[in-house]
Amino acid sequence: MLATLFSNDAFAVIHNKNFRYFLGYRFFMTMATLMQSVIVGWHIYFLTHNVLWLGFIGLVEVIPQISISLFAGHYIDLWDRKKIIRNTTFLLLLGSLILSLYSIESFHAYDRLGIWPIFVTIFLTGLSRGILMPAHTALLGNLVDKSLYANAATWSSANWQVGAVMGPAIGGLIYGFVGIQAAYISVFVIYFISLLMISNIQAPKLVVEVKSGGENIFDRIREGVNFVMKSPELVGAFSLDMFAVLFGGAVAMLPVFASEVLHVGPQGLGFLRSCPAIGAIVMSFYLMFNPPMKHSGRLLLGAVLGFGLCMIGFALSKDFWLSSLVLIFSGVFDNVSVVIRGTITQLYTPDHMRGRVASVNSIFIGSSNELGSFESGVAAKLMGLIPSVVFGGAMTLLVVGVTAKVNPPLRRLWLKHKE
User: Fold this and answer.
1) Architecture label for domain 12-199+217-411
2) Which of 167, 271, 292, 414 yields a CA-CA distance of 20 to 30 A from 260?
3) What is the CA radius of gyration of the chain?
4) What is the C-alpha to C-alpha distance for residues 14 and 19, in angstroms, rounded to an integer?
5) What pLDDT does residue 192 have?
6) Cα 53 to Cα 210, 273, 275, distances in angstroms
7) C-beta atoms surrounding 217 within 10 Å
8) Which of 1, 372, 403 is nearest to 236 (CA)?
9) Hey, how many other C-beta atoms are within 10 angstroms of the C-beta on 204?
10) Is-contact 62 126, C-beta < 8 A?
């Protein structure tokens, strides 16, 4: 029975040993990163009680991420992608070590240094993400056969979402029941496990044709950017996600909703942060058996539309369980978008340009998440918490309408031809 199940096409890519190690690495890295995110968000709000500082978390993270992404993409297309990921993970370990030391009560670090050590770690996290996001995409393309890209994108997304459920939930529970120091030390340990996982991958050597003396770094970066901009499917999918999340994301304000609107502690915050991932996991398992290869463009637009409506519903809810349910549905819609966008990126990008194209995608995605956090903090300060999230959701709906109108190739996209 189990042998028959695992022989199904939905599990085809799981037979790849290197891909399984890749999933293990992504799982533990995602778990640790989002544990740290929820702990830092609650910690900063606990120390300052200022929503603007929550917005600055995104700004401090996005500046190094955007600054390094294009350069990272250039070197990812030339150097060993596994080594780049492994070495960059050390930056995340360093950041988690800083937070662990900062949280030791006998040091009285907040009294002496304020909250700046936390922002140093956030800066290191942003720097690491600027390298890791394109590196992950590029390495994935090396580990699996082209015919399995959609399957690999679905498994990768599902794996990420499981980590995204467990990370915030465990982080919130450890913080709430054991304490801040134990929470930060747990993050350090999980980052170390992810380092062991990436070290076990046996990635094939990348063969790259480089023109001797004819191309410099800026020529190669420009080539990657131009490739994306001349592909309406790629630029449409990237920009749709960027503007939707820029305006529609409410994650940065969850500590405020948890504290001031829903009246739950860090445990409740951890659960709220996990809810979108719960929905995404459910949808991932559906997409494993029903990949979105037909009417893909329309499905992408509809998914982002549903995400925007969920953000409006979340802003208006005053009930913890209703808010949780709405966030679960936001994860359902978001996962459809993630899988389709990931499949488009792999199918439309030649191997020798994966790093550069993924770095452009990283800027789109990274700027939307982190600048979206900053936008959320500023908007909440100026407009009020609930009106700002409603406004963001409405802007997401507008973005979908404009994209559908101005980008017909994306709207008509099929990742599989009609039979």
Assistant:
1) Up-down Bundle (1.20)
2) 167
3) 21
4) 7
5) 92
6) 45, 19, 24
7) 12
8) 403
9) 9
10) yes
